[in-house]
């Protein structure tokens, strides 16, 4: 029993605060993303910048294998191994161009992901799943009781401390995969990814779709950021108190959706014309003057990858293995 239990025992406060918590779960991570990380920060952490450190010299295939192995280890071992992996991958960001700034950005993004992931999982986790982690339901601490109609939205009748801990543990699996995936995007050109996919015989249509996605994500945030700034340049929120700036920012974001979509659609049309004029998909494969090779750094990374696989096997043998849904504390 928590000391604020009287709040959910009264119908009025229960309904008002439940809806506040609902919108908190939806809006708060987005507000954090926009206000703390910012569109510029998100743009910078999803866009390639050239560099000379070892990550830039790795074969793209090595980085993809590393990301896949990190995902497997994080999803099949106990949560704190995923947390350690997250920290280890985060420190690799120091080796990137403007590494300190990127480390700060990825730290903020991980914090937002943990908050959003915990809140996105905890209210929906049924007791049958929690019992796999916390075997004794009678020891659960009730944090909040939702109105009965919240079950229509998939909410469990009560939110427990154990559900929040469970959500927190699951979120570390997400951050480990997210960090390793962004590491690939930040340190690899789309041309090298294309060459790598061509080498392992991935169909051109699939390769083209993936590359368009990689190039479009940072472009979306760049256009969105520009469109929002244009709204303020036209006088939106001029001379208004700073306390309402957040609401004007959200309003500017809504107004920026249409011009962003128009720019993206025009860009997609130009991209299609450009691909056609260059004879893309005229043949099943394309020739390349640059050939990707496996170097010394790749072999070092393969040793690390093998070490991670061994760690995964040992963790499962000695009782630290967990599967999805997460089983065990």
From TrEMBL:
Bilayer-crossing regions: 20-42, 54-72, 78-96, 103-122, 246-265, 299-320
Topology of the protein relative to the lipid bilayer: Multi-pass membrane protein
CDD domains: EcfT
CC annotations in GO: plasma membrane
Any one Pfam family match given in the protein's UniProt record, by short name: CbiQ
Xref: InterPro entries: ABC/ECF_trnsptr_transmembrane (IPR003339)
Compartments where found: Membrane
Alphabetized UniProt keyword annotations: Membrane, Transmembrane, Transmembrane helix
PANTHER family attached to this UniProt entry: PROTEIN ABCI12, CHLOROPLASTIC
Stated name of the protein: Cobalt ABC transporter
Organism whose genome encodes this protein: Acidianus manzaensis
């Amino acid at each position: 029993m928590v000391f604020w239990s009287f709040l959910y025992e009264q119908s009025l406060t229960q309904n008002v605060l439940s809806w506040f918590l609902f919108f908190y779960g939806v809006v708060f991570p987005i507000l954090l993303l926009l206000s703390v990380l910012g569109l510029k920060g998100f743009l910078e952490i999803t866009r390639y910048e050239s560099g000379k450190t070892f990550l830039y010299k790795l074969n793209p295939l090595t980085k993809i294998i590393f990301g896949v192995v990190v995902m497997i280890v994080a999803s099949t071992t106990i949560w704190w191994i995923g947390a350690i992996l997250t920290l280890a991958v985060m420190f690799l960001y120091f080796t990137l161009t403007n590494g300190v700034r990127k480390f700060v950005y990825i730290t903020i993004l991980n914090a937002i992901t943990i908050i959003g992931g915990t809140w996105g999982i905890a209210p929906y986790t049924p007791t049958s799943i929690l019992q796999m982690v916390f075997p004794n339901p009678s020891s659960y601490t009730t944090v909040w009781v939702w109105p009965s109609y919240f079950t229509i939205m998939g909410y469990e009748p009560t939110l427990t401390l154990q559900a929040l801990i469970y959500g927190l543990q699951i979120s570390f699996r997400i951050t480990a995969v997210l960090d390793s995936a962004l590491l690939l995007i930040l340190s690899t050109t789309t041309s090298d990814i294309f060459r790598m996919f061509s080498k392992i015989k991935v169909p051109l249509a699939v390769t083209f779709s993936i590359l368009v996605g990689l190039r479009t994500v940072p472009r979306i945030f760049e256009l969105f950021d520009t469109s929002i700034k244009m709204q303020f340049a036209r006088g939106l929120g001029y001379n208004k108190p700073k306390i309402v700036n957040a609401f004007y920012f959200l309003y500017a974001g809504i107004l920026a959706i249409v011009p962003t979509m128009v720019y993206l659609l025009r860009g997609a049309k130009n991209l299609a014309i450009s691909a056609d004029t260059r004879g893309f998909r005229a043949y099943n494969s394309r020739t390349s003057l640059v050939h990707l090779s496996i170097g010394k750094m790749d072999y070092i990374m393969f040793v690390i990858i093998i070490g991670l696989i061994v760690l995964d096997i040992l963790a499962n043998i000695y009782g630290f293995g967990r599967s999805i849904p997460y089983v065990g504390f």
